[in-house]
Every structure is written in C-alpha cells, then in structure tokens.
Specification:
alpha/beta, 6-stranded parallel β-sheet, HAD-like_hydrolase, binds magnesium ion, 11 helices, 2 domains, Rossmann fold, hydrolase
Length: about 270
C-alpha cells in the first residue's frame, strides 16, 4: 500500500443513522404536498385534490420504481425520480401540467429541507476536522441529501452525489472521479462505508483500502485483503493509526481506548 493520502466517505449509515430521517422525510414531504396543495386549491375556488387519500404513498413509490425501470440511467437519481413521480400523480388527478410540475418541485424543496435533518454521530465533526489536516477528504453518496448544506461540508475537498452523475455505487466511476479530483491513486486512499456491495466491494476492487462500518447484524466474514471491519466510525482513528502511524500522520484519536484495541502494526 502507498502512503495514505486521502479518505473517501459514504454518508448515510456511516456518518449518521439514516433510518428515522428517511421515514420522516418520505412521509413529511408527501403530507406537506397534499395539504398545501389542497389549501391552495381552496383559495382558487377549486375542489381539494386529496392526493394522499386518492393515490397515496404506495402509488408514489410504485411510480418511482416504474420510472427507474423505464429510465435505467436515472435509477440512482432519486430526486429526479421523485419529482417526476409526483408530477405524474398530480396530472393523474387532473392538475394542469404546469401546476403539477411547479408543485412537484415545491414538494422536493420540502423533501430537501427534511432530508437535511440528520444527526451526525458526535465524533464526526471533530474527526473530519482532525483528518482534514493530514489527508484529502471526499464524500461519495448514493443519497440525495443536499451536500453543500451539510454542517461539515467545508471539511470535504470533493463531494459527489453518485446518483446524480448517473453512476450510483457500486459503479466505480464516482470513486474514480473523487480520486481524480484529489489527484490521488486508489492505492493511496481509504474508503469508509457501511454497505458491503456499494462501498466495500467496488473500493476494494479498485485497490483502495476499505474501512467497513459493519452493520450490527452482519455475520462474521472472511475479509478480502485491504478491508478492515469496524463497529463504528469512531473506531476510524485507531485504524488510521495502524495504516499511517501517529508520528507520520499527526492524527489524534478521539477514542482513548482505541490504541489498546488496535495496537500499531509491527514495523
Ligand atoms: Mg451508507
């Protein structure tokens, strides 16, 4: 392995627990659209559309799946799929096309607002600040969170929404794009992520080191060369201390017990 120069990070379920946020966002922006649209219809002297009652989330989700199958290149561009599916639903309820497009876009603004209500693990901000002093940092996500509005966005040299570049992980292109923009070879980089299929395998195949933030229920696995299993992102400093020891990296651990659990490798 070359000297470690860069780290790339998955976001959802790596830097925060994503489950509650997605559920609140899914229900929240849809309820907002249904209610606000009916209130607006009433001000216009029209009948309420009753979107949630007449079509509902299941139909919305089904249309997204259908669109993803029909437009395979867009399958990872979740913002496009959602906005298009909402506009389709509204036109099905006989809202004029221009209004449907406008209301679908407004609902996605609400989606983006709710999607940002993530709670990063408390170690994340100081960890990124510390690592950023030594390494180039990139974020690579399949999600559609508004990257530039993340509270710690300034720590990343590069941020890539892989779905919006029509190459969601495990496609290697978002990894290669991040590494190219940082000017770092794969063998000098470590990817940090929770998904075996979308993070571990593609990064490992490119020759990157990988820190796998293994889900609690993940069974014991024989790990490929260069893959390191961690329970939590807070264990990352200890791994980096093994790969790029403190005396060279200048990285300090946020976990006082970490050095004991992950003693430096012998020279
Ligand atoms: Mg993830």
């Amino acid at each position: 392995m070359k000297r470690l120069q860069a780290l790339t990070f998955d976001l959802d379920d790596t830097l925060w627990d994503n489950r509650g946020v997605m559920q609140r966002t899914e229900h929240g922006h849809y309820a907002w659209l249904s209610q606000c649209l009916d209130a607006w219809q009433q001000t216009q002297g029209g009948e309420p559309l009753q979107l949630a009652e007449r079509l509902g989330l299941a139909d919305y989700q089904s249309r997204r799946l259908q669109l993803a199958q029909t437009h395979a290149l867009r399958r990872g561009d979740f913002t496009w799929l959602r906005e298009r599916a909402l506009a389709e639903q509204l036109q099905t309820l006989k809202l004029p096309r221009s209004s449907a497009i406008m209301w679908a876009a407004a609902a996605m603004d609400e989606f983006r607002r709710l999607r940002l209500e993530v709670t990063p693990h408390p170690e994340v901000a100081p960890l990124l600040a510390c690592l950023g002093q030594r390494f180039k940092l990139a974020a690579i996500t399949n999600g559609n969170i508004h990257l530039a509005r993340l509270p710690f966005a300034s720590h990343f040299n590069v941020m890539i929404a892989a779905g919006e570049m029509l190459a969601p992980k495990p496609d290697p292109r978002p990894f290669l794009a991040a590494l190219a923009r940082m000017g770092v070879a794969p063998s000098a980089a470590l990817h940090v992520g929770d998904s075996w299929c979308d993070d571990v395998l593609p990064a490992q195949r490119l020759g990157m080191q990988v820190a796998w933030i293994a889900p609690l229920q993940a069974p014991p696995l024989r790990l490929p060369s260069g893959v390191h299993r961690l329970a939590h992102v807070s264990d990352l400093p200890a791994l980096i201390e093994r790969l790029a020891p403190m005396s060279r990296s200048g990285v300090t651990t946020t976990d006082p017990g970490a050095a004991t659990r992950y003693p430096p490798l012998p020279a």
